[in-house]
Design goal:
about 400 residues, binds ligand PMT, single chain, 5-stranded parallel sheet
Length: about 400
């Protein structure tokens, strides 16, 4: 995607992830965008303004009262010239100021004045991110239309593990590019996406499930919605944030998922099944907590669940595009191809879930796209970027049909 002629104002706040903002500037410039950087005083403790000046080829603004080079009021001029206002990293402090309308430095003043779309990439300690006040501030900003990318989860600079790591520059720039030049190639299409794990209950306190977080399916739902589709997401147990602006249907078991998907599939143009439904359920379930019999093994019988993708494949009508996933631990291509045929799919996204950086509950995936015409092996990438690759392939298949 080319961003020639687009102006991005990048706010950099004071966190260790400030160094990653350098790559954000480089990537945006490589795509042709012009980048103007505003740093908070705290950010200058982490990275020298000269670094951003050199990378952006523009003076860096840090001080509201610096003598301007032109007679424009600088924060208003920057606020007006922005096609996109990006803040990366965005600390808990700037998010709180934005939520409350506090304007006490160059960055907070300028973002308050802008009419451009605003995208923030939060980065902070996991305790600060999960604090009720931060979550409330984020909800307020989202309700006002501020876009968020991340944060990702993992080991943080402070040594803690959890949510709070700034998204990778590649993902931030991809989100920025979509906001600057939104593709609307899926306008008028009805898309159903499944996401997350199903739960098969044994009794009121126990169930069988898997590690699906919903990240992959939700990334696809978000991308399809951004590209103009009318999206329904049917999801089971998830830890990822449920997308906004889509129709949401929450289910628990594979049988519930079957009912929700088969009941809606007929009216859909595209059905993408990224959920990880349990293949089996308990033959017998208990209304009360099943009591332990000391010293005795517990033998539970399981029965097969319906195959939702296969059922949707049976009902397939002309003009529909059906996409499945294959979560494999061996013989990736062979097993995935078998599922492509058996479930009457047009495309299967094969992922070897044993590979580091692929599969369940991580922000990246390593996928091979298999159609009846060919195989496309993709490198490890953010699930948000893979989502767009899958949708590109879906649109190519629809144009061929
Ligand atoms: O949610 P994340 O943490 O981001 O993880 C992503 C993921 C690993 C769950 C995702 O990338 C993925 O691989 N999803 C498919 C998981 C799965 O159930 O794979 P499978 O090979 O067992 O099933 C093949 C296809 O049939 C899938 O499209 C699945 O949704 C569907 N299926 C499976 C069982 C069943 N009873 N009915 C189905 O429709």
């Amino acid at each position: 995607m080319k961003l020639t002629g687009k102006e991005v104002v990048l706010g950099v706040t004071g966190g260790i992830a400030a160094y990653k903002a350098c790559e954000v500037v480089s990537r945006l410039r490589k795509l042709g965008a012009s980048v103007h950087v505003i740093m908070t005083q705290n950010a200058t403790e982490f990275v020298q303004p000269l670094t951003f000046e050199t990378l952006s080829n523009h003076p860096v603004v840090t001080d509201t009262f610096a003598r301007p080079e032109t007679w424009e009021v600088e924060h208003i001029a920057l606020a007006k010239r922005a096609d996109l206002f990006l803040i990366a990293p965005a600390t808990a402090n700037i998010l709180a100021k934005m939520a409350c309308g506090i304007a006490d430095d160059m960055l907070s003043t300028t973002v308050l004045a802008t009419k451009a779309p605003v995208l923030v990439a939060p980065a902070m300690n996991t305790g600060m991110w999960t604090a009720a006040v931060t979550q409330e501030n984020c909800a307020t900003l989202k309700s006002r239309g501020v876009h968020f990318v991340g944060p990702a989860s993992g080991v943080l600079a402070c040594g803690d593990t959890g949510a709070g790591r700034m998204s990778e520059p590649e993902e931030i720039v991809s989100e920025a590019a979509e906001l600057l030049c939104p593709r609307q190639d899926m306008q008028g299409l009805k898309v159903l996406v499944t996401a997350g794990a199903t739960r098969e209950r044994l009794d009121p306190v126990r169930y069988m499930t898997n590690d699906s977080s919903g990240k992959m399916g939700f990334a696809i739902a978000r991308a399809a919605q951004r590209r103009g589709a009318d999206v329904t997401v049917v999801y089971g147990s998830v830890t990822a944030e449920v997308p906004q602006g889509v129709e949401k249907v929450h289910v628990e078991s594979t049988c519930d998922l079957y009912d929700a998907v088969t009941g809606r599939a007929g009216e859909m143009d595209v059905v993408i099944q990224a959920a990880a439904p349990a293949d089996y359920r308990f033959r017998e379930t208990f209304a009360q907590k099943h009591k332990k019999q000391a010293g005795e093994a517990l033998v539970l019988e399981m029965v097969e669940n319906p195959d939702i993708a296969a059922a949707v494949g049976q009902m397939k009508r002309p003009g529909q595009t059906l996409v499945g996933f294959a979560a494999e631990t061996e013989n990736l291509l062979e097993n995935a191809r078998r599922k492509l045929d058996k479930k009457h799919l047009d495309l299967i996204v094969a992922n070897d879930v044993t590979k580091p950086g692929a599969g369940f509950d991580v922000d990246t995936n390593i996928a091979t796209l298999i159609t009846h015409e060919g195989v496309k092996e993709l490198p490890m990438k953010q699930k948000s970027a893979l989502a767009d690759d899958i949708l590109d392939q879906v649109m190519a298949l629809r144009h061929q049909a």
